[in-house]
Amino acid sequence: MITTQKLSPIDDETLEEIGFTWHTDSDGSKYVSDELVEVTQEEAEAYYEAANTLYDMYVEAAEYVISNDLFFDLGIPFNLIESIKKSWENDVHWHIYSRFDLAGGIDGQDIKLIEFNADTPTALFETALLQWAILKSNDMDEERQFNNVYEAVTNNFKRLVTLFDDTDKFEEFYDGWKILFSSVEGNDEEEATTKLLQQMATDAGFVTKFEFLQNVRFDEDGIYDSDDINYEYWFKLYPWEDIAVDEPELATTLTNIIQNQKAIILNPAYTLLFQSKGMMAILCELFPDSPYLLKTSFEPLQGLKQVEKPVFGREGANTKIIEANGSISIQTDGPYANHKKIYQEYVEFPEDVHGKKYQAGVFFAYEACGLSFRKGGDILDNMSKFVGHVIL
């Protein structure tokens, strides 16, 4: 059972002052819950261990996919395969941040992987800043969280230069390299998240600039802002799979840029392997005894209650819950109906006294670094609520 603490929410005006403008959902309800999930120190440590172990498993599985040319199995667009291979080969293509979605972990329930948001994970702003601000505004000790996301991501930017060396050596190795940050114009959440990441990189010591995606120029010699300044790094809050399908010419250009070492793109192209939910079927083949994995396959699971998901779906769209007898009990619409599907064993999310279900999100930046929750129904869609936590 999920236990929560009631608190006084931060008012909308204050939220907007700190850049959080997406505080109210389309139905008029508040996106941020006025409660905190109570977590024990032992539960927080278990989430930390689970995310670290799962990331290592994903790295091993990615090597297996590349070595055995299993890109089609994961639904990877053909025009990004070379970019994936090239970015995987060289450590300078550093994975900046990601988020594991997990069931269980509370009140003795086993932690189970639901999916891995490796490329463009949401809730970074909420997890890194907002839940800390909620504790502070309620006169609670802000240290009572599993949450060092800001510091961890900042240090991961330093690792673009130091790699596996001590991040304290950043100034010794740094040679003035610049990072251009981009999101699509018109999306407040993505813009605020991208600018938060920009601030982290600035704090790390990089020269940075923000430019809306449509104003960035690409050619065989690199990536340029609207003032025609060339950048060594480009961070885009724009999914790799969308680039492949919606911007095929850009996908080709970026492949050439990566191949010719004209710029490094963040998150790297290989994170598309992690992003594909098909990877969970590969994980089950490689790690059949892992306590963190639900049985997952590219074909329907016989005799099991299961969830059908598109390999590149978002926000619970085009998802079905299928009963053991084959009947569909719940399904959602969306734009991913034609995507390749995977079938994952069903697991119950922890519930509160009102029957609301909770999914844990654990951010990863070199190591697990922050916990938060989403609250909703059996399928967590874009109307689910963000819930912070407090360690007892």
UniProtKB/TrEMBL annotation:
UniProt-recorded Gene Ontology molecular function terms: ATP binding; ligase activity; metal ion binding
Key word Magnesium present: yes
Record flagged with keyword Transcription regulation: no
InterPro entries found in the cross-reference section: GSPS_pre-ATP-grasp-like_dom, PreATP-grasp_dom_sf
Keywords: ATP-binding, Ligase, Magnesium, Metal-binding, Nucleotide-binding
A matching Pfam family: GSP_synth
Gene3D superfamilies (alphabetical): 3.30.1490.330
Domain spans labelled Glutathionylspermidine synthase pre-ATP-grasp-like: 12-391
Protein's recorded name: Glutathionylspermidine synthase family protein
Organism: Sulfurimonas sediminis
